[in-house]
């Protein structure tokens, strides 16, 4: 959906309908955040699968992942819309090229908080999960090598 909204964004913004542009910008923002949220959930799943291998039963795990994956971005979008729906709009007003228009976030502060900070938090979480998994794999490998040396002796 992110790709579909992104590819049709310029065409839809050429209609010069503010409501349509706000809707397209909201959808683009939502699906972008949802993609990063699901990436973060994949790293959490990776952690649970490789580090917390045993005794990790989470009741209704998929339902909880779906609520987080689709709900957290919806909360961010709702907060932005509650503050001011005019944060979304048409980015460029070039007369020579009507397809240079793009519906997106107009305020830099809102962009940095709701997109850049969000992606940065996902990046930090993924990095932490990745390092933890690497350390776990390294410790398992060293334990296996110690056991094999013990049995060789």
TrEMBL record:
Superkingdom of this protein's organism: Eukaryota
Coarse class of the protein's main subcellular location: membrane
Keyword set, alphabetical order: Membrane, Transmembrane, Transmembrane helix
InterPro entries per the UniProt record, alphabetical: GPCR_2-like_7TM, GPCR_2_secretin-like
GO cellular component: plasma membrane
Statement: the UniProt record of this protein carries the keyword Transmembrane: yes
Compartment(s) of residence: Membrane
Record membrane topology: Multi-pass membrane protein
GO term, biological process aspect, one: adenylate cyclase-activating G protein-coupled receptor signaling pathway
Domain named G-protein coupled receptors family 2 profile: residues: 1-153
Gene Ontology MF annotations: G protein-coupled receptor activity
Annotated TM spans: 20-41, 61-83, 110-135
Protein name stated in the entry: AGRG4 protein
Gene: Adgrg4
